[in-house]
Amino acid sequence: MDKPRTRDKSFPRKESHFPRKPRASAFAAMEEMDRAASADNEGLIEGRNAVWEALQSGRTLDKLLVAQGAQNVGHILSAAREAGVAIQECDRRKLDRMSVTGSHQGVIALGAAAEYKTIDDILALAASRGEKPLLVLCDGITDPHNLGAIIRSCEVLGGHGVVVPRHRSAGLNAACAKAAAGALEHLPVAKCANMASAIQELKKNGVFIVAADMGGQPAAQVDFDMPCAIVIGAEGSGVSEGVRKAADLVVSIPQKGAIQSLNASNAAAILLYEAVRQRG
């Protein structure tokens, strides 16, 4: 009976000339790395509405990336060409890896989402409209989607600006710009050293500070028909103790459900609407 054949170990195994394909987990790791690298990048503008508004406002863009076969982007391409923006068609998977929001709609622009303004800029906007200042102060809002939604509500409901602190705050990155849906092109967002300094500056300019907190007066009983800044705190911890003490008024939103809290951006929208309602 013949003995089973064995490989002569003195000769190395023949290797393939083609590199092995990365496993699915490797692709996931690559995508996660791309997302992480882009998470703090304030130069990505994602989504058709956000990119369109950026182009219409005259914002300087370095490049426009468009997915192959993307639909309903002809007006964006025309505007980009007219503005002299370089256009690059690429595989949709590249945009997927770059995307922070996960919903780029086949369009990503490279450029600052928005320039930070100052509190003086916000007050000047109110003065130019002949209106009493109405601002939102974001105290510890670290979720860019929440920040973007607050900016969107503030712009839609006639507010004059949003103020964020230098630390413990989401930035004006791609996720924020996407959630703001173009509002960043029309509403100034100021960055301050901290909430205490912002409150001090606003009070010097005759602006009343109204902090949103569970233990405050019902919103309908608070006079918003005055120069005011509504402070919205982080979900969970709420408005910080120092800011609460510095506030002129504390306001609450009556709730009848089993859940005793609202999303920060929803709370901001409700209070902004109450201000608009009172101001007629």
Structural class label: alpha/beta
| SSE ordering | HEHEHEHEHEHEHEHEEHEH
CATH-assigned homologous superfamily of the largest domain = SPOUT methyltransferase, trefoil knot domain
Number of helices: 10
Question: How many domain units?
Answer: 2
According to DSSP, the number of beta strands is 10
Uncertain parts? 10-22, 32-40
CATH architecture label of the largest domain: 3-Layer(aba) Sandwich
What is the helix fraction of residues, given as a range? 25-40%
| Topology-level CATH name of the largest domain | Alpha/beta knot
Oligomer: single chain
Can you put this structure into words, describing what you see?
This protein has 280 residues and is α/β, with parallel strands linked by helices. The chain contains ten helices and ten strands. Strands 7-6-5-9-8-10 form a six-stranded parallel β-sheet, with helices on both faces. The longest helix is centred in the N-terminal third of the chain and has 16 residues, at 24-39. It is elongated, with a radius of gyration of 25 Å. The protein starts with 23 loop residues before the first helix and ends with a helix.
